[in-house]
Amino acid sequence: MEDYLKVLDGVDEGIVVLDKDLNIVFWNKYMENITDLSRDEVEEKYICEVLPKFKEKIFLDIFKYMLKSNQKYFFSAALHKKFVDIKRYGNCNLRQNLKLSTISVNDENHILMEFVDVTGQYIRVEELKSYIQRLEETQEIIKNLADYDQLTNVYNRRVFFEEVEELIEKNRETDFRGVFTVLDVDKFKEINDTYGHYFGDEVLRITGERLNRITRDGDLVGRYGGDEFLIFVPNIKERKDMRKLSQRILNSLNSSVVVEGKIIKPSVSLGMSLYPEDGTNIDELFRVADKELYRDKGRNERCCFK
């Protein structure tokens, strides 16, 4: 038995042996290290006095049953924490699995408790989770940079066209209808020349913000480039609804913008086309809407500064 206990003293896990009265008869070096309690301090003491976690009824019942039946039990660190009382002993971050089995000493059953440190595993798992989260956040940032115009926070031209094409293709065999809109800010060059590019950028940023605000879930907004924006609104039922849509856009965009105390009331011009009447693909829809835009130019070229 002495040789056996020496072997247990050298293993890299906590080993505690209890007699039939649940008093500690062996406490190995590992347990001394993690609890700062020497073998002499704990031997012959009731386990619940030394490690209060085992006062819980589930453990007391299991100990009693084990001494009669020789059953083995396993308790995971994922479900059971603080086998070692962190208020008095050891590291508060210590994570351990607990194995319980019986051994025979002098023809009497004793309980063998094995505390297996899995802290390193948990740390690695947490590090992996953290890495995955950072990776997902980075991928989201990269996707945002790739898909969105960074000034206006609307789709860039490539993604906008891809999204509209996908929507059209998906609904090609249905009675789906949608409005394609091209708009630009009137006299935008005049705004830049008068107040500088920072002021012009703010006008574009606010325009994108307003477009995002007035569109519904499922509507698509993009920046074509410069001062031109694109909108695709699906599920328009009749051509007359296009007028209501254009009025909603104009009411939102033809309102004052204040930047660094300067007030400007920009206006926009827009052109629209209706799928599938005006075109069955994005090139045809864009061509018709762009032609309507230039037909509308001049009517809305009002721009006043204060």
UniProtKB/TrEMBL annotation:
Biological-process GO terms, alphabetical? regulation of DNA-templated transcription
Q: Where are the transmembrane segments?
A: none
Instruction: Please list the residue ranges annotated as the PAS domain.
Output: 1-42
What PROSITE patterns does the database record attribute to this sequence? GGDEF (PS50887), PAS (PS50112)
The record, for CDD domains, names: GGDEF (cd01949), PAS (cd00130)
UniProt xrefs under SMART domains: GGDEF (SM00267), PAS (SM00091)
Residue span, GGDEF domain:
176-306
Enumerate the PANTHER family for this protein. Answer: DIGUANYLATE CYCLASE DGCT-RELATED
Q: Which NCBIfam families match?
A: GGDEF
Name of the protein in question: Diguanylate cyclase (GGDEF) domain-containing protein
Which species is this UniProt entry from?
A: Sporanaerobacter acetigenes DSM 13106
